[in-house]
Specification:
It is a multi-pass membrane protein. By secondary structure, this protein is mostly helical. It is 65% helix and 0% strand.
Length: 237
């Protein structure tokens, strides 16, 4: 198996487990704490953050982006080529969809139930711009600053916090957003909200890339990008 094939597998598996954690913990939270949305969100965010740390630490030596925005920005900065970027994004989207199906089935729900939760208000979309910009800034700042070994904790900490301080509860990831249309549960999002969300995420990623170019005009060998960190590898949520 080539290095790219291993990366494709890592991205599919990692994104799938991440989505299963997001959706599964949301379902569990609504069953364990019915009627208390605040407690449900707390349980959902803590479970997501914990799984993120574990996944990034386990898969970072191969590939641990789990996020098309991060992969696209690595392509823009030249860390990966176009065929690799297309393959990795495809693996993330397919893996995320599989994770949603598994989460539904684990809780004895239909494998697919299209979400009816419309989220694309102006406030939610601004929240997604902020959430994604912050996430990319955390990843880029950690890796470009030579702290790639700390990125798992930085990303997980940011995501747990962003669940609470952003109006959108920080999807910040097109693959996860698409996957969450497949579950009409706590974590679900209506298909009609996906395109606005993804566009907001791309805007946030681009804004963060511009800010990183100002903050880190010169990259050190130890802190280039998430993709160049290991074997042209990427990182995140």
């Amino acid at each position: 198996m080539t290095a790219l094939h291993r990366r494709l597998v890592a991205e599919a598996v990692g994104t799938g487990v991440l989505v299963a954690a997001v959706i599964g913990s949301g379902i569990a939270a609504t069953r364990l704490s019915p009627g208390d949305v605040g407690l449900q969100l707390l349980q959902n965010s803590l479970a997501t953050g914990a799984v993120l740390v574990a996944l990034i630490l386990a898969l970072q030596p191969v590939s641990a982006a789990f996020n098309p925005v991060v992969t696209l920005l690595d392509r823009v900065t030249g860390a990966i080529d176009t065929p690799a970027a297309i393959g990795l994004i495809g693996a993330q989207v397919l893996g995320g969809a599989a994770g949603a199906l598994v989460a539904n089935l684990m809780f004895d729900l239909p494998a697919v139930s299209i979400a009816a939760h419309h989220r694309a208000t102006g406030g939610h979309l601004l929240g997604e711009v902020v959430a994604t910009a912050g996430l990319v800034l955390v990843i880029g700042g950690a890796t470009r600053g030579g702290r790639g070994d700390k990125v798992a904790y930085a990303v997980a900490g940011y995501i747990v916090g962003a669940y609470w301080f952003t109006s959108s509860t920080s999807f910040a990831n097109p693959a996860v957003t698409i996957a969450r249309t497949l579950t009409d549960t706590f974590a679900g999002i209506s298909p009609a909200s996906v395109v606005p969300y993804v566009l907001a995420q791309l805007v946030g990623g681009a804004a963060a890339l511009g800010l990183l170019s100002v903050l880190y005009p010169t990259r050190t060998p130890a802190g280039e990008s998430a993709a160049a960190q290991t074997v042209a590898e990427e990182t995140v949520a």
